[in-house]
Amino acid sequence: MSGSSLEDKNAVIPGAGHAAPPPVEAATTHRADRSGLRDKAELLRALHVPGAPLVLPNAWDVGSARAVVEAGFPVVATASNAIAAALGHDDGEGAPIGDMMFVARRIAASVAVPVTVDAEAGYGMAPEELVQLLVGIGAAGCNIEDSDHVNGGLVDVDVRAAYLARMREAAGRIGVPLVVNARIDSFFPTSPLPGDRRRADAIRRAGAYLAAGADCVFPAGAGPEDLRAIVAEAGGPVNAGLALGRGSLDELRAIGVARVSVGPQLYRGALDHLRTALRPLLQEVSEP
Length: 288
What we know:
Elements: H1 31-46, E1 54-56, H2 62-70, E2 76-77, H3 80-86, H4 97-110, E3 115-118, H5 127-136, E4 141-145, H6 157-174, E5 179-184, H7 195-212, E6 216-219, H8 224-234, E7 239-241, H9 249-255, E8 259-261, H10 265-286
Parallel strand pairs: 1-8, 2-3, 3-4, 4-5, 5-6, 7-8
């Protein structure tokens, strides 16, 4: 990363423009540790099986990550939306990258299973710097989206594909086969595309991203029919979102997705539980 790392927590992370959190123990993954991280990345990749998807309950801190592992899930995924909210920031790269990666690094250090980190749109970093950062904090994989948080809309498909290709090359040079899940935001409310063009755009992006070296594509917000079309045309593993309490994991299996995630829903559910628990306590405090 241009000569700097998260070892110096007071340094500015390249391309980010944000100061990192106060000093803590070193976050760099040394060469001696990379064989273990390589094994985790290979395991993570192997768990992407169409029709028998890897299910990822997204975590936002060490406690939630440990709960995911204790429940029996083989991988922890972070949720940038939830981490940013817990830190008091908006999603969409509204939080300083140093803060976001500090939390991700603590999660990766706290569990023995592979951890895949939501890296949003890359924080304006060069792909080589981003890969080095992710490997340095102990990530076996990452999620990277094609929303343009600076100019709005979506990053051009060829520009994003080239970025992913450079990420793949950088991971190869480092010797850790980082599992890259390329999120496709064609169906997002912020997408500038009209509804009748979104499926075709998502299919085009899926093919380009997989050809560039992504391991999986994630057409976030796609409905069942759109997912079926993308799975049929993409030529590689597809990630789907699951609406807890409303969506059907069986339906996603039948469609043939290889990965399922829940985003910030567990974080929001935990907050709802906290609010519910606080009401009777406040009532007792208020009563004479």
